[in-house]
Write a structure and sequence with these properties.
Number of domains: 2
Largest sheet: 7 strands, mixed
Number of helices: 4
Radius of gyration: 20 Å
Structural class: alpha+beta
Helix content: 10-25%
Distance between the termini: 19 Å
Mean pLDDT: 91
Strand content: 25-35%
Order of helices and strands: HEEEHEEEEHEEEHEE
Amino acid sequence: MENIEHKTLTADFFEAWKLAIQTVISTALPLSKQKNVHFSMLRDHLNQPFIEHFSFGFSNQIFFCCIQTDEDTGVRPTSTAALCKYARECGAIPCLIPLTKSDDGTWKAYTPDYPLHFIDDDGDPQPLDLSLVISEGLVGMSDWEILDWSINIVVDHIVDKFDIKNRDEINYQSTTGIYPQIWFKDKTGSVNYVVVGAVRYPEMDAPKPENIEEICEFANLTGKGFFASVSIAQADGFKSDPGIGYRPPAEFIYRGCGAHVNFKGLEKL
């Protein structure tokens, strides 16, 4: 186990990142309304560590995106190979959004008609037309999605329990295998951390990581450590009314489904 060094994020990188997200929203949001499909930003922050710079859901697909600039922003880019490997492990489509600078020095999409490029199986970027990915099929959620969902459930709980006014005050990330996933400051100024475990029904309680003691040691805490166990079940799988037609079993958790959540709060470490 080792500490992960955080990147120094430059103002130029931050401006490019903001422009990339705005470009995706301006492309995907009108299309989602026109086609009546789901669209949401998933990772819309730069809490570290990260592999993808941002991610979003559209229809029943998830996209992990990295910006690609033709000028040095001062931040070492994620390699295409690393992005592809991680995205596919998480059930996402790896994408690049190429950017270039305008004459006035601001960032803009290199290919405005199709600003996003998915990375094909040969590792080559291809223009992405979001209208072609729309599907009504049920897509099962990956383990990363279950973890990311669980972390957001715990973050919402922390906001309420510790009376935190702004969710952005909490530092959280869902990169798999990285602990702790959540850091937050309470009203005393203590910096606390949370290790999150996520499982699927019929499992009801997530186990702590085997190296939990080592994690606590490395967390370098100035406050308290907590563990949060979250179990998720797909809600429609519990319905038995034959009049509503086929419903997948509760353990099949698919994108966009309703859910039952078993989360009992924070356990002190």
